[in-house]
Amino acid sequence: MEIATIGLDIAKHVFQVHAVDAAGTVVLRKRYSRAQLVRLFEEIPPCLVGIEACGTAHYWGRHLQSLGHDVRLMPAHYVKPYVKRGKNDAADAEGICEAVTRPTMRFVPIKAPDTQALALMHRLRTQFVGQRTAMLNALRAGMAEFGIVTNQGLGGATEILRIASAGDDRLPELIREPYRLLADAIRAVEARLVTLDHQIAASTQFDDTCKRLSTIPGVGPVTSTTIIALAGDVSRFPTGRDFAAWLGLTPRQNSTGGKARLGRITKAGDQTLRTLLVLGAFSVIKRARVAPEKASPWLMALMERRPPLVAAVALANKMARIIWAILTRGGSFRAPARTS
């Protein structure tokens, strides 16, 4: 049996294989268990293997590469057009087998174990932030029902936690203890976040790439390590604009007949990385308002004619292009000289 290309649909315990020869003729269409799949790839000669990028795809990619196979991961939404009517494992594997051979297909770099672990650390941090936000919102909403309202932001959160821990007389006796427990849970999550942030910062201490990225205004240890963990090898993007487009920071196009129509940003790509860049841009804008004489003239002009959120997204787009330039060409960020 001669196998040239395999489309592999992976799951936890069941794996669907669709294999074709050099002429495109189907030579194998079968479901395997984990142990059976490993034996199959150990026995067959090296071939091209396509897999949809998902939670366990990087592990299988590394394992099959160690056996000599050419493994290529693809975004699931790029594979979907090649899946015929109906949704099942066999149809998915066939669509993957077809998609991996397309010359215009885009592939996802296979992450090394350390890079994948770093990405999981950031995913865990995002979950902690979400838990803290949800519990704070629940506490704020409950307090408001009894006329206790605080300011937004860090100061307001600190105040409402103090009120909940103190057992304010404005709260009924029945709810005071549950709110104390909720305040303790919020502080526990915050402590875990501090520990995780220290671990992330420590991982950048001896990493030259993270140090160079941190020279960009608005990019700190969390953002720089997230870029390393989630963006992968950015040299696969021909230009910085392509990298910004991958992050979803470029306008959505709806053009026809030679007439360009641009809308809101696409919000494609990784949401965590895009969010961090926009938040970093907001911090740069905040500093520019305090010390405009030290800010970029381009940014000050942008802030004068655009709303804050639009300016932040535009700055995040520019930051993404600078990140691409540093990662592909080396060096660090140098602020342009101000002209008098």
TrEMBL record:
GO biological process: DNA transposition
Pfam families: DEDD_Tnp_IS110, Transposase_20
Gene Ontology molecular function: DNA binding; transposase activity
Top-rank taxon, per record: Bacteria
Domain Transposase IS110-like N-terminal: 6-143
Domain Transposase IS116/IS110/IS902 C-terminal: from-to ranges: 210-289
NCBIfam families (UniProt xref): transpos_IS110
The name this protein goes by in its record: Transposase
Protein's organism: Sphingomonas hengshuiensis
